[in-house]
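Hi R.,

Here's the chain you asked about this morning:
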Amino acid sequence: MAGGIKTEIPVTIMNRRVIGTVEECENGVVRRSNKRVLYIRQFEIVMRLKNRASRHGRIEDYHSFLLVIDALDLVATGRSVNKEISLEKNNNEKAISKKKNTHKMFVGDDDSIQIVRLLEQTLTSIDGVAVREATEALDRLATELPHFPYRLLSIASGGENPSQRVAAATYLKNFTRRSTGIEGTISEVSKEFKDQLLLALLQAEPAVLKVLLELLHIVVVSEFVKKNAWPELVPELRSAIEKSSLISSSNSSWSTVNALLVLLTVVKPFQYFLQPKLAKEPVPQQLESITKEILVPLVSVLHRFTEKALTTKGLGELELEKTLHIICKCLYFSVKSHMSSALSPLLSSFSRDMIRILDSLSFDWSVTPSDGNLMRLKAGKRSLLLFGTLVSRHRKYSDKLVPEIVNCSMNIIKHSSNISRLGCLTERIISLAFDVISRVMEIGPGWRLLSPHFSTLLDSAIFPALVLNERDISEWEEDADEFIRKNFPSELEEISGWREDLFTARKSAMNLLGVLAMSKGPPVSTTNKASSAACKRKKGEKSRRNNQRCMGDLLVLPFLSKFPVPLKSYILDASTPAAYFGVLMAYGSLQEFIQEQNPEYVASFVRTRVLPIYSTPDVTPYLVASANWVLGELASCLPEEMNADIFSSLLKALAMPDQVEISCYPVRVSAAGGIGSLLENEYQPPEWLPLLQIIIGRVGSEEDEDGILFQLLRSVIDSGSQDISTHIPYIVSSLVSNMLPFLHPSEDPWSQAILGGLETLAVMAQTYESSKPAANEENNQATGIWVTGQGTISRALSSILHHAWLTTDVPPTSCVDHLSMMLRFIVIASTNCNELRLTELLVVWADILASWNGWEESEDLSIFDCIEEVVGINNKYGFRSFLFRDMPSPPAMPVRPQSVAESIGSFVSKAILEYPSARRRACSCVHTLLHVPDYSSDIEGVGKSLAMVFSEAAFSRFLGLREKPCTLWRPLLLVISSCYISYSDVVEIALEKVISGGFELWASSLAFSYSLTFDATPALASEIKLYVMTLVKVIEQLLDVKHGNATDDLARKCFVSLVEASQRLKELNEETDDDEDDGEPGEEETESEETDSNDEDSESDECEETEEEFLERYAKTAAELENSEVTEEEDEEDDEHEIDLGSLNEIDPQKLVLSLMEKHHEKVIKLVPSEVISTFLNSFPVFTSLFSKCL
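And here is the predicted structure, written out as tokens:
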């Protein structure tokens, strides 16, 4: 083999097979690492068939070619074996196909045909089972076939029909995503596959292209961004773009749009910082390469295409406009976070081309835009986003462009008066233009440039965007929720949505108005070298600027005061209410400015400009709704003495009925938002009942409105708490009566309104329970009233649970957490298990828990509270179904159903395995289930089965965390301890079932965990008591004859931990006794708040955080998060939750330790270091006699 030539041939991807080495020798034999033999002559046959197929495009040639390839165990799609199959030949293949105007027909072997058949089955089958079977068959083929990805890519490129091609591309994308590792990288992707993928992308049809681009994104992030292992990508992509149809002079089959979309996918990951631990992240090497090799040449292409697009129109208009749009997107993503050295000199060039594109946009609402015009608008939108980024992030390079950017943006926002007639995309462009001007105004040069035009800007651009228009009125009636979301966002989740999504010209104009009102002069730079000097002169400059009046005083308020409050005499003038709607929207945007005014000014402003709306006869609902929103926005800065008048006005609006021609739904919703803001700012109305009556009276009128009312009611309950508790029985009874007609058990899941109502009932039950008066002679009357109310609430909640669970054969699984809170309230209020059909409810509830898989939908832990109460009521009154359920009557199958305890155990074990946030609380529940119930009559062995299930679940979860110690070690190990104390033989079997040597591993971890977890975090007395009792039993087991001397080292560790834990338990008990002797602690003295104003002044004098300081803090936080030892998400709120040991509480752990020492003190002397024994005897002198001979 000497003298042979070695060539690396990557035979597959996704770590399915290794890369083989091919050696070409003089005798013509080619050998590979897997010992398969190929022949040079066969390679020549393959190449001849390939070339002939390329020249003539004949189906039979392709068929022969593919058969030979399959015979040689190469890729079924005909991937190239060496460099002889060049890009030019692939171009010829596609050129032939394009001339025939058909897709290259896919022809493959039996395996490929089977893949096609399975893909078709996933598309055409209406049976879910058949689709699942086909998917599982594809999954099996993915592991069995060595070239599975290549076959899928071939089908995606040359399948018989579009749906087949899309299905293949989709499965290939999902297959690649599943192969992505924990760090977001794929184990292995061959160069061959990447080349084939790139070729497929350049010629794919739009539907397939979209899916393949998602696949490319996965590969690019893994291979190019994270591993930088695709050096050929940039030069090959540059070559593809140069040879594409619009850019190349030749008749190329490669689409320029496709090539640029590939570039966009490659650039997109670099729009964000990739190394959060670095305060000053350098420009990534890959982005520098892309910029130098591709983006810089594309700048001249952008200029040429811009000239062509603005001067000519032809058949290729749409593709040309698409090209402009994609180039603009690529440039935007490339500068969003970084500025490449090669691109910065060209900023002015491509920025001016983008300005020309923006100047060419049409805002003529009377003309329906063509597809080409829509693409032009998208290019304009991306240009404005880029300008905003340049002004905010790259001032060093963009300051000279600011005048041109401002002039272009000003020309756009002057069309704001027509936004009601413009399309959404055009309005978005106007919105972005407002945003660009807002950013420009926040820099010194920009403020100086804009200041002469402030008056024109306010009068001709900002205010026209705020005025009520025809689209607003149409949306008010046709889609009120959308109108509210855009114009009256509040903290009520159902109506606000994501506030970042409110991309409207009105919101952007309001933001600009807020910036304008607060400005007092050119902003002072606090970045780079100027930051330290700015901080030094901060105080003097602040006092000087505070004496300077801002634009809100000088311009904004005087302008708005020109518009009078609409009175009855203005009803016939439709323009007056429309204009005043804009005035109120403007006031809502001035929250920051109004907060700086004195209380007398704010009070006068609200009384004269807002509250008169509510007393005006026949006032239009549009103004009332906007006034509600303004009061909600200004709630944090309203004078306290005005809150009562404002609350009264909002209450009036909340009760406003619909008018004949106008719905008042937005009025009531905005009023609810305003009242919620007042309550959030700690306003307490003198009387809660009027508000509660209005809310209850309207529930059930409209489903959309019910969700808002329920959320407002929860806010009222949270704010009023004790003051409202006396009204809760009436509210609950009324709500249940209103909800029952709309609650249909057959619907699963229930509507959002019903879910909101159930959540509200649960919150009210919880609030009423916490309001229970203390039990003493003075409160006998109050306690009697409370108990009566408890019974009323219990009966109402019972009726809704009966309706939801007992009126259908298959109870719905919706809202289990809130229904569990209601059931808990009923259990606490009950005096026996037969009351209110409680036993039936508990059985159904437990069955639902056993099959519940809603871990990702809710993180509410109320279910565990209910479990603890159910175990308690079983101990108190006893109900047979807790441990045993009768066989069902015929015709049901003769299978004994799970008992309530078994169903709860199934739920808890799944929580330990699957639900990180509930894991700690689930572990606490295990102790309650094992030690609180009385298992003396457990004829079915329920206790043993629970111990088996719990120990297996906890030990399996512990093994997953064993490599990196964390705070979850303790609860998991203590779960096994509880099981072991009660059923040691069962637990040993369960641990050995999970892993060989499981018992010794658990015992060793238990001993090791004391110093690791009990010393690191505070431990509860009940936990250490359980720990001591478990170690005593483990040591006795280890010293048993069957374990021999092989466990001496483990026994030594357990003895040492037992000594330390016994000492700590004694200390905790002594601390508890001291606290009881001291009596109840007195009230702590509160600190004076006289220094608050001084603290605020000192805070305001501090230098604002600069960009560099922010990035340094961000990098430090990122490093801390990465280096932290948190292994998974968990709930830390229950760290202080005492575990309930039930019958184990009667055991004295000190007596157990004494008994152990008396029995094995000689073994202790041999195993435990003498200094540990001495320390132990200092704490427990009673043991001195046992060790006196050896000390």
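One quick note: The chain has a mean pLDDT of 79.

Cheers,
M.
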